[in-house]
Design goal:
By secondary structure, this protein is mainly alpha-helical. It is built from seven helices and two strands. The chain has a two-stranded antiparallel ribbon. Helix 5 runs antiparallel to helix 7 and helix 6 runs antiparallel to helix 7. The longest helix has 33 residues.
Length: 189
Amino acid sequence: MGERIVNRSEMARILEVSEPTLDRMMDRGLPVLQRGGNGKPYQFDVEAVIAWARDDAEREEAARSAREADINQLAMDLNGGATAEIEGVSPGLSGKARIDAINALLLQDKLAKQRGELVPVEDVRADYQAMFARLRQRLLSLDTLLTRSAGLTPAQAAIVRQDMRALLVELAMQIADPDLRPVEPEEMH
């Protein structure tokens, strides 16, 4: 099936939403081939929009499921089920006071996310992976750089290469398990 291009009102009809809802969807990332304005119509690739809408629905369902699981866990905690402690919420509070405290914590988290103070762990992990990849690349070429710039012998370059590989292994282990006790510099030799 070839590319099908439609305008804004047609796209809204295809998705069975109003045009203001379509605008909100565009704000959330719905793909637009061409933004409209000054006599220029909006243009949408129907297949790309449908794929985005399907993915968006899956993301919303995953978020809804996660929230539902959180609510179920909180209900269990409040009703004597699993006794997972919630940091910042006293276990001695009455049911209503405990719910209010939990709602206050949820609101704090939501506001912190909006202010950019909380970052999804996937984003942090991706940033660490990118930085580690760049660091790895530079460290693995350090022996060659030192051989050229400082005149290391092949034996000295091999020692540098071995030390860099050991360091990379330690860093990878630390990233994989942040609870590992970091090796102190004086312990390394």
